[in-house]
Fold:
Amino acid sequence: MPLTAPGKLWQWLAPRLHALVLLPTVLVLGSSPFLLMGRRLRENASVWDVTHVYLGLLLVPLSILLLYYCLSGGRARQFFPLFAPSGLISDLKGLVTGKLPKGGGSGLFSLLEGGCVLLLTATALTGFGWFLTEGGTEALSWRGWHKDLGLAFFIALIMHLLAAVSHLLDFLKS
Structure:
Protein backbone atom coordinates (compact mmCIF):
# COMPACT_ATOMS: atom_id res chain seq x y z
CA MET A 1 0.00 0.00 0.00
CA PRO A 2 1.53 3.37 -1.00
CA LEU A 3 2.12 5.97 1.68
CA THR A 4 -0.19 8.97 1.80
CA ALA A 5 1.18 12.50 2.00
CA PRO A 6 0.76 12.62 5.83
CA GLY A 7 2.42 9.19 6.03
CA LYS A 8 5.39 10.38 3.99
CA LEU A 9 5.63 13.53 6.10
CA TRP A 10 5.61 11.47 9.31
CA GLN A 11 8.21 9.09 7.87
CA TRP A 12 10.46 12.08 7.22
CA LEU A 13 9.65 13.94 10.46
CA ALA A 14 9.75 11.16 13.07
CA PRO A 15 13.51 10.48 13.02
CA ARG A 16 14.21 14.24 13.14
CA LEU A 17 11.91 15.16 16.04
CA HIS A 18 14.63 15.00 18.69
CA ALA A 19 16.77 17.48 16.74
CA LEU A 20 13.76 19.69 15.91
CA VAL A 21 12.87 19.92 19.60
CA LEU A 22 16.45 20.56 20.72
CA LEU A 23 17.10 24.06 19.37
CA PRO A 24 13.87 25.76 20.51
CA THR A 25 14.17 24.00 23.89
CA VAL A 26 17.69 25.33 24.44
CA LEU A 27 16.61 28.86 23.45
CA VAL A 28 13.48 28.75 25.63
CA LEU A 29 15.42 27.47 28.63
CA GLY A 30 18.19 29.97 27.96
CA SER A 31 15.74 32.86 27.95
CA SER A 32 13.94 31.75 31.12
CA PRO A 33 16.14 33.56 33.68
CA PHE A 34 15.56 36.89 31.92
CA LEU A 35 11.75 36.85 31.79
CA LEU A 36 9.63 39.64 33.19
CA MET A 37 6.13 38.30 32.68
CA GLY A 38 3.18 37.93 34.99
CA ARG A 39 -0.37 37.81 33.72
CA ARG A 40 0.48 39.00 30.24
CA LEU A 41 3.18 39.70 27.71
CA ARG A 42 3.92 43.43 28.04
CA GLU A 43 3.60 45.75 25.05
CA ASN A 44 7.27 46.65 25.37
CA ALA A 45 8.31 43.04 25.98
CA SER A 46 12.00 42.22 25.80
CA VAL A 47 13.48 39.99 23.13
CA TRP A 48 13.81 37.32 25.87
CA ASP A 49 10.08 37.42 26.62
CA VAL A 50 9.06 37.30 22.96
CA THR A 51 11.56 34.54 22.15
CA HIS A 52 10.38 32.48 25.11
CA VAL A 53 6.68 32.83 24.28
CA TYR A 54 6.79 32.16 20.55
CA LEU A 55 9.38 29.39 20.58
CA GLY A 56 7.43 27.92 23.50
CA LEU A 57 4.31 27.94 21.32
CA LEU A 58 6.29 26.14 18.63
CA LEU A 59 7.21 23.50 21.21
CA VAL A 60 3.55 22.67 21.89
CA PRO A 61 2.97 20.70 18.66
CA LEU A 62 6.58 19.49 18.53
CA SER A 63 6.43 18.06 22.05
CA ILE A 64 3.08 16.39 21.36
CA LEU A 65 4.51 14.82 18.20
CA LEU A 66 7.57 13.64 20.12
CA LEU A 67 5.33 12.12 22.80
CA TYR A 68 3.25 10.44 20.10
CA TYR A 69 6.44 9.05 18.55
CA CYS A 70 7.54 7.64 21.92
CA LEU A 71 4.15 5.98 22.44
CA SER A 72 3.69 4.60 18.92
CA GLY A 73 5.21 1.75 16.98
CA GLY A 74 5.82 -0.38 20.06
CA ARG A 75 8.12 2.23 21.64
CA ALA A 76 5.91 2.79 24.70
CA ARG A 77 7.59 -0.17 26.41
CA GLN A 78 11.00 1.30 25.66
CA PHE A 79 10.40 4.88 26.84
CA PHE A 80 8.03 3.94 29.67
CA PRO A 81 9.51 0.68 30.99
CA LEU A 82 7.09 0.60 33.89
CA PHE A 83 4.90 -1.36 31.44
CA ALA A 84 7.67 -3.95 30.97
CA PRO A 85 9.96 -3.49 33.98
CA SER A 86 12.57 -6.24 33.52
CA GLY A 87 15.24 -3.89 32.07
CA LEU A 88 14.44 -1.25 34.67
CA ILE A 89 14.73 -3.76 37.51
CA SER A 90 18.04 -4.99 36.10
CA ASP A 91 19.40 -1.42 35.91
CA LEU A 92 18.28 -0.65 39.47
CA LYS A 93 19.94 -3.84 40.77
CA GLY A 94 23.10 -2.84 38.89
CA LEU A 95 23.08 0.62 40.50
CA VAL A 96 22.99 -0.97 43.94
CA THR A 97 26.20 -2.84 43.07
CA GLY A 98 27.81 0.32 41.61
CA LYS A 99 27.28 -0.58 37.96
CA LEU A 100 26.06 2.17 35.59
CA PRO A 101 23.02 1.32 33.46
CA LYS A 102 23.53 0.64 29.77
CA GLY A 103 21.96 2.92 27.19
CA GLY A 104 19.14 1.70 24.98
CA GLY A 105 16.65 -1.00 25.74
CA SER A 106 13.95 -0.49 28.31
CA GLY A 107 15.93 0.45 31.38
CA LEU A 108 16.58 3.42 33.61
CA PHE A 109 17.95 5.68 30.86
CA SER A 110 14.90 5.01 28.69
CA LEU A 111 12.61 5.83 31.62
CA LEU A 112 14.51 9.10 32.02
CA GLU A 113 14.02 9.87 28.30
CA GLY A 114 10.30 9.13 28.54
CA GLY A 115 10.03 11.29 31.66
CA CYS A 116 11.77 14.16 29.85
CA VAL A 117 9.27 13.93 27.00
CA LEU A 118 6.33 13.93 29.43
CA LEU A 119 7.73 16.91 31.34
CA LEU A 120 8.49 18.81 28.12
CA THR A 121 4.95 18.23 26.88
CA ALA A 122 3.42 19.23 30.22
CA THR A 123 5.60 22.35 30.35
CA ALA A 124 4.65 23.32 26.79
CA LEU A 125 0.94 22.73 27.44
CA THR A 126 0.93 24.77 30.66
CA GLY A 127 2.77 27.54 28.82
CA PHE A 128 0.03 27.37 26.18
CA GLY A 129 -2.58 27.56 28.95
CA TRP A 130 -0.83 30.62 30.32
CA PHE A 131 -0.80 32.16 26.83
CA LEU A 132 -4.52 31.45 26.31
CA THR A 133 -5.49 32.98 29.66
CA GLU A 134 -3.21 36.00 29.21
CA GLY A 135 -4.51 38.93 31.20
CA GLY A 136 -7.11 36.83 33.02
CA THR A 137 -7.25 35.78 36.63
CA GLU A 138 -6.27 32.20 35.77
CA ALA A 139 -3.04 33.31 34.06
CA LEU A 140 -1.05 33.38 37.28
CA SER A 141 -2.12 29.82 38.13
CA TRP A 142 -1.01 28.61 34.69
CA ARG A 143 2.23 30.55 35.16
CA GLY A 144 2.89 28.82 38.48
CA TRP A 145 2.28 25.36 37.02
CA HIS A 146 4.41 26.25 34.01
CA LYS A 147 7.33 27.41 36.16
CA ASP A 148 7.18 24.30 38.40
CA LEU A 149 7.02 21.91 35.44
CA GLY A 150 9.72 23.89 33.63
CA LEU A 151 12.05 23.47 36.60
CA ALA A 152 11.27 19.74 36.79
CA PHE A 153 11.92 19.45 33.05
CA PHE A 154 15.21 21.34 33.37
CA ILE A 155 16.39 18.98 36.13
CA ALA A 156 15.31 15.92 34.13
CA LEU A 157 17.06 17.33 31.05
CA ILE A 158 20.32 17.75 32.99
CA MET A 159 20.00 14.13 34.14
CA HIS A 160 19.31 13.11 30.52
CA LEU A 161 22.47 14.93 29.38
CA LEU A 162 24.54 13.27 32.10
CA ALA A 163 23.12 9.88 31.09
CA ALA A 164 23.97 10.55 27.45
CA VAL A 165 27.54 11.52 28.35
CA SER A 166 27.81 8.39 30.51
CA HIS A 167 26.55 6.28 27.61
CA LEU A 168 29.03 7.94 25.23
CA LEU A 169 31.94 7.34 27.61
CA ASP A 170 30.88 3.71 28.03
CA PHE A 171 30.70 3.37 24.23
CA LEU A 172 34.17 4.89 23.77
CA LYS A 173 35.63 2.70 26.52
CA SER A 174 34.49 -0.54 24.85
